[in-house]
Amino acid sequence: MKEEKKICTCDEICEYIENEIKPGDIIRLSLGRCYIPGEVVTNNEGVIQINVNSETIKGLSCIDVEKLKDFLVEVEHECKDGVCTLEAKD
């Protein structure tokens, strides 16, 4: 499994989420002090529905990444090809 790490602007991360994240992929979002791990159920132009699976929160959650881009710290995307970590630089 290949691993890739990139430093990107928040706009580049939003574009990546919109174009590269597919249903069934595992993502881990860091938004400010919130950590949101889960499986992507749907991705509708960057509005993602995630089946959250953490110790404190479980269930479906809908996140509009574009609206929250100012709080993006990091996105870790796990798919069949490997793991890509995008760290926000602004």
Topology:
Blueprint: E1 2-8, H1 10-20, E2 26-31, E3 34-44, E4 47-53, E5 58-64, E6 72-79, E7 82-88
Parallel strand pairs: 1-7
Antiparallel strand pairs: 2-3, 2-6, 3-4, 4-5, 6-7
Structure description:
- The chain has one helix spanning 10-20; strands at 2-8, 26-31, 34-44, 47-53, 58-64, 72-79, 82-88.
- The radius of gyration is 12 Å and the shape is globular.
- The chain has one domain: SH3 type barrels.
- The protein is 12% helix and 59% strand.
- The protein has a 7-stranded mixed sheet with strand order 1-7-6-2-3-4-5, covered by helices on one side.
- The longest helix is centred in the first third of the chain and has 11 residues, at 10-20.
- A hairpin with a 2-residue loop joins strand 3 (34-44) and strand 4 (47-53).
- It has 90 residues and is mostly beta strands.
What is the arithmetic mean of pLDDT?
91
Strand order of the biggest β-sheet:
1-7-6-2-3-4-5
Radius of gyration: 12 Å
Going by helix content, strand content and strand pairing, the class is: mainly beta
Secondary structure tally, helices = 1
According to CATH, the fold-level topology is: SH3 type barrels
Helix content: 10-25%
Order of helices and strands: EHEEEEEE
Which class in CATH terms?
A: Mainly Beta
Please count the beta strands (DSSP E, at least 2 residues each).
7
The CATH architecture comes to Roll
pLDDT < 50 stretches: none
Terminal-residue CA separation: 29 Å
Q: Please tell me what the overall shape is.
A: globular
Q: Into how many domains do the coordinates divide?
A: 1
- Measured by DSSP, the beta-strand proportion falls in over 45%
Biggest β-sheet: count, sense, barrel? 7 strands, mixed
